[in-house]
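Readers outside the structure-tokenisation community will struggle with the description of the input data as it stands. What matters is that the chain and its backbone geometry are given together, residue for residue. For illustration, here is how one protein appears when written out as sequence plus structure tokens:

…
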Amino acid sequence: MDIPSLEPIPLQSRLEALIRIPVLRDFIEECYRQILLREVDAPSLRRFSRRLRFLPFFSRRRFIRTLMGSDEHLQVLQHRLTKLEHIRQTVEHQQQALAFQYQQLARAEGAFELQRQVQEKQKIENQAERRHSQAIESLVLSKYEHLLQIDPPATFVSEAYQELLGRPPAKSELESGRTRLEVGVDRLKRDLLRKVLEKCHANSLDATVAHSSFPQPIHDMFRPRPSKGSACRVCEGSLTFKWSLGVLSDKYMADYYECLQCRALQIPHPYWLDEAYESENAACLCNPDTSRFMRNFSTYRYLAALAKAQVFPEQPQFLDFAGGYGLLTQMLHSAGHKAWLTDLYVSTPYFASDRYIRDFQAIPENSFDVITALEVFEHLTEPIQVVERLRRILKPEGTLVISTSIYRPSEHDSNWVYLARPWGQHVTFWSQEALEACAAKTGFRSVGYFPSDEGVLILFSMDSVQHLKDKLAHGLRLLQDIHHFREVICVWDFLTRRCITLLEEPEVREVDIKTAAHEIAA
């Protein structure tokens, strides 16, 4: 916020210094500069020079009092008061913004501490569970190994109950055990087929992969696919091993590789993703995404600035891809924008449920001016196919707006919090080179970062570099304009929308406790 500068007030000591100026012309000119804050005009200079020379009672002190009592000096003082009021309001808004930021930081610190405690507790419980499982497995191998030789699932379940519990299984127990064994065998078979396909380099594999391109179910965008050797999923460059870390509460071991060409960090074969997304709709002990509201509110504010800076066409149509609970869509819609959302894992969003598109594949091409994808790209195993699909449902001059943390190889190591290892869903980490490679491969002309180079919002645009840069510069100026900020947030305030009337003074009424108690007793 720009705080206007104030001219100094002429103090008594400075007035005395003015009186001691030896040359009369210099005295008059300096009085005008310090009292009326302007240069003296020629007629006034001649008039006051004659009066100071020839009128015996018109002294230099009286001349100063004349200037200070003039209407022009009164206007100067009123202008100064206006500036002071502007400064007061600006400082007050800054204090309110700082107080809000402090509150958010305090809440974030509390949430992080709670999350740390829950993770520590979960780690202890997992270790205890692993020790218990190891003890059980040791007992099985030492005493009941002969049961493992029984092949039919139903027979195995019956023999196990009979030998361990001394009774046959109930019908429900038999059915449950048999189904669980068959599902486990089916998953092992699919894992084996996936590994065999990964070793296959024949033309039949290329034909299979080509045949699986769009159209396809939207959830396939998030599932692992056989990759061509060790090629980067963004630019098809060569990969180099970085480190191995436990994911999904250390249940599985993930191998992280970095592309030698675009520097993207990635997990080539995240075979646990089906399990990682199983509980996506279930309640959590703690929220792994503690900045959800802040991110959506900030994105709404930044999008409003970009729209006003004409980064998007007039009255743009928005689609929030993988929009979760619909908060951003509802905020845009409440502010008068045309906005919709779609998401695989949320069957009915809490917000904007009437603006929810269930069938993503049914969206026609050239439908939207802006598509947002907040904290989505780090989940993708086939990012180029996803962006190509989003590019087709964008209008020819449309913009794709994403958010993801930028991977910087010189700064980030295996302790980077954005790896999000406990949840096992982040599998692709984008460097700036990788983002630009993805934009180039999918037909965009430029990539912009707004309002920071930390990846708060990343724009894949059809504008030229200079054209987009000029628009983003306008957007940055709007973010620093307190009037624009008021316009953005007033849509949710009852007073500014004139839903209620502000009292001239507070209304407080005293409660007659004795009368109320008497009525209750009666």
Residues 202-220, 222-228 have pLDDT under 50 and may be disordered. The radius of gyration is 35 Å.
